[in-house]
Amino acid sequence: MLKHGFYSTHWSAHLDTDQSRAFIKKYNIHPENPDDNIALGYDTMMLLAAAITQAESTDRRKIRDAIANMPSFKGVTGTINFNDHGDPVKRAVFMEIKNGKPHYLKTIEP
């Protein structure tokens, strides 16, 4: 077991934002659960739904264009923007492992 270390992730249940608190409450997420993939998967589906709504279509090219032209998307993992290459630009959450357990350390915004 790793006693001490650091890592970066997309989200922590310890983030104190309206979106994070609502997500934790709605899906009964336990702060001890370090799995950030739950929130990232949720944001992915919500971003896709927003793009389909904006495109008014399920055509993949129209969805891709809607995502590329979306000004920003506010999700559980933070605000997501896309650069000119289609890559997401978003915050990074840093965690510290103490005595084998992850603890929120800090967030760095782009």
Alpha plus pi helix count: 3
CATH class equals Alpha Beta
What can be said about the biggest beta sheet?
A: 3 strands, antiparallel
Q: List low-pLDDT spans.
A: none
Provide the gyration radius in Å: 16 Å
Identify the overall geometry: elongated
Determine the fraction of residues in helical runs and give it as a percent range.
25-40%
Number of strands: 6
Give the integer mean of the pLDDT values.
90
CATH topology: Rossmann fold
Q: If classified by CATH, what would the architecture be?
A: 3-Layer(aba) Sandwich
CATH superfamily: Response regulator
Describe this structure in words.
- By secondary structure, the chain is of the alpha+beta class.
- It has a single domain (4-29, 36-108), classed as Rossmann fold (3-Layer(aba) Sandwich), CATH 3.40.50.2300.
- 35% of the residues lie in helices and 28% in strands.
- It contains 3 helices and 6 strands.
- The chain has helices at 18-27, 37-55, 60-69, and strands spanning 4-9, 73-75, 78-82, 88-89, 92-98, 101-108.
- It has a 3-stranded antiparallel β-sheet with strand order 1-5-6, with no helix packed on it.
- Helix 2 packs across helix 3.
- The model has no long low-confidence stretch (mean pLDDT 90).
